[in-house]
Amino acid sequence: MTINILTGMVTVLPWWSFVIPVLLSGMALPFLRWNVSSFPAGFLSGFIVWVVANASFDLAYNGMLAKIGLLLSVQKIVVLLAAGLIGGLLNGLALYTGKSILTATTTNSEII
Amino acid sequence: MNKLKVGALFPLMALVVLIYALSITMFGIPPLGKLLNPFIGAVQNGNDKALLTSFVVVDKQELSAKVNVFYDERKVPHIYAGNTSDLYFAQGYVTAGLRLWEMDFMTYAAAGRLSEIFANGDFLDYDRNQRRIGVLEAAGRTLALIEKDTQTIHALTAYTRGVNAYIATLDYKQMPLEYKLLDYKPEPWTNLKSVLILKSMANSMTGYGEDVFQSKMMLALGEERFNALFPDFNEHITPVMDTLKTDLKSIAFHVKKPAYLDYSFFTSNSILQKDAYNPRLGSNSWAVSGKKTKSGLPMLANDPHLNLSFPSIWFELQLSAPGMNVYGVSIPGTPAIIIGFNEKIAWGITNGADDVKDWYKLKISNDYKQYAFDGKWLNLKYRIEEIKRKGQSSFYDTIYSTIHGPIVMNKSYPGQLPDLADNSLKWEMHNPSNEFLTFIKLNSAGNYKEYKEAIQHYACPLQNFTFACKDNTIAINHQGNMAVKWPGEGKFILDGTTSADLYTKYIPQDSLPQLLNPACGFVLSANQHPTYGNYPYYYDGHYAEARANRIGQLLSAKDSLDIPAMEAIQCDNTSSFVTEALPLLISKVYTAGISAEQQHTLSLLSAWKGNYDADDEHAQLYELWWKNITDYTWDELRRYKFFVRPPDDYVLLDLILKEPDSHYFDKLATEKKENATDIITSAFIAACNEYKKQNKVKWADYHKVNIVHLAKLPAFSKTGIATAGHPDAINAVSENWGPSWRMIVQLGDRPQAYGIYPGGQSGNPGSVYYDNFVDDWNKGHYYPLHFFMSEQEAKAYINTLAHEKEHH
User: Fold this and answer.
1) What is the pLDDT of residue B418?
2) What is the fold of B207-357+434-570?
3) Which of A25, B322, B521, B679 is the most buried (most CB within 10 A)?
4) CB distance from B251 to chain A under 8 Å?
């Protein structure tokens, strides 16, 4: 179910609903005692997923990213990086927000 | 509750803002959060898998039974339904599946609703113009008429339901790419949208006009010279109805200057903008009886010339239901097949090119509430059109109209032609008419009688219908609402204050130009004059002669035509104007006045046959030469600010031949009094010099065609395609228009047909089927069209295809 939400396969939900499970995971981090810096972890995983998924679909299907690049007057790699940036930002923020909900004021000096 | 920390608010808000920003269009960039999302965004539009199936069963609750659709190797759907309602439903469903964005977008453009899609007011003027020329209004009135015809309304409604059934299956992931890029969703289809598409075609076919230009030219030149330079007929025509031939001198069609026409008629002396409409949009079509074919079976050819776009205006398919089995091209958004053939007949259409659009100068009261008509003051009607705008409040436009039609340009909307301010527009396109019925009936017609019954409903645009039946009947009909006019009526701006200028009657259908089984064994049309000058009714239009002349020559000269011969004619690159003009021009050059090198060039050029082939090395030199001759001759006319175009090429040709000392050949800028020989010689010298500088050799190095995406997105267009052809050749390709469909049909027990169009069946820029036909089209290739005589045949063919794929 979570996988379906994460990959946009539950079509009635808006495009950003993958953020919800990530946020919830962020909230679970303190309980799991995973001492991981949430924002960089979230950013990195989001970045990788969006870039790799876009690139693989682009390769498997007829490549659209180059054409999108043409439309926006940029190279395909810029499109991929932009996708990664977006995915990373959203994921990182979501994970960080989730963790912050339970831990924000307890350790003010927590380094993010 | 106290576990939720305030410090989490910051990142939460940042997250919310970020999501919001990525969900909207900013600075013209589409919502990137959706577009670049790998699971639902643009990259998913590259998924062609849906198209790789060759057999689809359409099974929706609105259908009375399942409909089977077979897709052949070019993704042409062959639809088999149990009744016509299900058939049109499936046509809507299947067409939407491949071309939804195109048909939806065309209706926004036709209705003047582009401001709903494109923000920043880019299209407000365009939308206002569309509303004012009355396309949407005409569509509404036409729909009201159509609703009274049960056959048509059933077909339209079924089609509409089919489209909507397809739209219901879409979510963001599967939406056509253009919706994602332009950030909007498909709206429900309606019968009105289908009608809009039809009216939009009438708009582009009959929109071109020269009323202001010709009025000012008449005033500037006077009657004698105007009639000499801009005659309605010349001797170089091969008309649609070529009976009643007589020589020009016995015709009395001398157009008088209308009494009311004087300079006070015009409010401005401005430069006339180039018309947005293309007068060259036309087509070729001809039919040949078995007398002249190798097989003894009749053949028909048609290639409509339209603006070339991605997706193509045409969509190829076969429609089959009990009592009906037809193949051809349809226009996405409308049911039935527009050009094609069935088991017994084949038909084609070309634009009639008649002038059915006229302007009336009004006398309006100072308070802009009334206008003068036949000595009385009548009230101006008005309506308010709401133009919705993306991201802004709606714009409300007040559009006034008179008994003639709408006032398009006035103080609140100056438009492109200030001279037409406060003029009313009377346009056949405004009148309600049911052209759908013509095509619905043609699809299942089986003989000449049924063909005539079908075309009697056709009103606008006037078209030449070409017809062939397997019983060896061939026919051609210049069909539609052709008004009864007095000589010259419609060429100039008309007087809106009198009913004498307001035409109300139409030429009776039986008197329209037509031919049935002529002795010569062929009929042809290529936007040329429908008749010779002694036709009992006056008409004017924007006709082109060279192609019809050439088709006539080729068809007369050949017997035992076969399919390759027809293809060769359709792709013929020779201009019959050049074959007439070139020898004359060569003979007129004063060879002593040109250099030895130029003499050599001239002798090489004299061997040229007027063929604009891709690798031809003379065409461009000739083009430069003729352009110079035209420019030098008509320099007097070019002085006028209102100058739009020179007199017809044939007029100049006749002038060179018959009046080589005419004063027109005298260049105003020079002291010397030139004659035809001087002009032709100096034009040749200048052309040689220009040609040397241009440094390219082959015609296709100069001659390019562009196929442009409907929303003008360059990434999805193909521009600068090197191509053969010329507007005066049968293969009339140029700039961004050309043969949008080429079809050759041979009738018989089993029709044999070949066709191609420059595009692909899929409207998805991410599909391999988006533009896979273009190269073959450009090379003059044709695909065999698979016309299945039964569903079993279709099934068997698809199975062999699948088999071949496996064993590949």
Assistant:
1) 83
2) Glutamine Phosphoribosylpyrophosphate, subunit 1, domain 1 (3.60.20)
3) B679
4) no
* Beta-sheet pairing, B704-709 with B309-310: parallel
Q: Would the ipTM clear 0.90, i.e. be above it?
A: no
Residue with tokens 């000449």, as numbered in its chain: B448
Assigned token pair, B605: 């050029």
For the entire predicted model, the pTM comes to: 0.93
Q: Tell me: pLDDT of B607 over 70.
A: yes
Per-residue model confidence (pLDDT) at position A110: 47
Please say if the pLDDT value at position A10 is more than 90.
no
Q: Inform me whether the pLDDT recorded for B508 exceeds 70.
A: yes
| Inter-chain touch B177–A64, beta carbons under 8 Å | yes
Find, among B104, B54, B100, the residue nearest to B77 by Cα: B54
Spatial contact of B740 and B308, defined as CB atoms under 8 Å apart: yes
Comparing CB atoms, the residue among A71, A82, A94 nearest residue B36 is A82
Q: Residues, chain A, total? A: 112
CA gap A72, B330 in Å, rounded: 34
Distances (CA, A) of B729 to B74, B553, B572, B738: 29, 13, 7, 11
pLDDT of residue B1: 44
Residues A43 and A50: their CA atoms lie apart, in Å, by 11
Classify each residue of B556-594 as buried b or exposed e, where b means 16 or more C-beta atoms within 10 Å of its C-beta: eebeebbbebbbebbbbbbbbbbbbbbeebbebbeeeeb
> Coil, strand, or helix at residue B160?
helix
Q: Identify the band that residue A6 occupies on the pLDDT scale cut at 50, 70 and 90.
A: low
Q: Where are the domains of chain B?
A: 207-357+434-570, 576-609+618-696
Q: Which of A61, A78, A79 to mutate to test the interface with B (most CBs of B within 10 A)?
A: A61
Note which residues in 389-408 of chain B have CB less than 8 A from chain A.
Answer: none
Average pLDDT of the residues of chain B: 92
Q: With bands split at pLDDT 50, 70 and 90, how would you rate the model's confidence at B487?
A: confident
pLDDT above 70 (res B625):
yes
pLDDT in tens, B755-773: 999 999 999 999 999 999 9
Instruction: Flag if A83 and B38 touch (Cβ within 8 Å).
Output: yes
Inter-chain CB proximity A58 and B46 less than 8 Å = yes
Report yes or no: B95 and B109 within 8 Å, Cβ to Cβ. no
Contact B43 A54 (CB under 8 A): yes
- Assigned token pair, B547: 């192609």
| Domain coordinates in residue numbering, chain A | 18-101
